[in-house]
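Subgroup meeting minutes
Present: P.N., E.W., G.H.
Scribe: E.W.

1. P.N. recapped why we're keeping a running log of single-chain structure predictions: easier to compare across weeks, and new members can see raw inputs and outputs side by side.
2. G.H. added today's entry (172 aa).
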Amino acid sequence: MLAATSGNTDEESKSGGSKMANRGLITAIAAVGAAQLLKPAIHYWQEGEWRPGKLVGSGGMPSSHSSGVSALAAYTAVKYGVRTPEFAIAAMLGIVVMYDAMNIRRHAGEIAIQVNDLDADVEKLAGHHPGIYHARRKEKLKESLGHQPSEVAAGAVLGALIGVLGAATARA
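Output recorded in log:
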């Protein structure tokens, strides 16, 4: 039982196979990596601007968080079935992460844009009223935090494909 919940089969455990390998986790991390690798190319295709920083940044197309949790859920569904506690946990994790990406984190990024624009607005106002003093923020808030629904959906599709592929190629 312990070997099955850790992602290893009884045969791997008996034969001295990798006892620490967790194929579901490896598949999810691979999906995150694949999404991150795609971001600079997709950004270039959409915007005509090459930004290698997209490799490690948050936000953008496709969502790497969505890709990772979708890969884990798809892997778990194929390996253990959709009526298992393992799939229920993976699916709920995915729902929470994708909701957070599309709503809470995206709105935080939109608020950051507004806050960053406040400096310019206050300085313009101060120019009209010389007695007003304003100290500019030293650092801008990060504006690219969350995702548009299409970015989350693209990440989910990419992750699901990688999850199914990971489960299909895992030793039974």
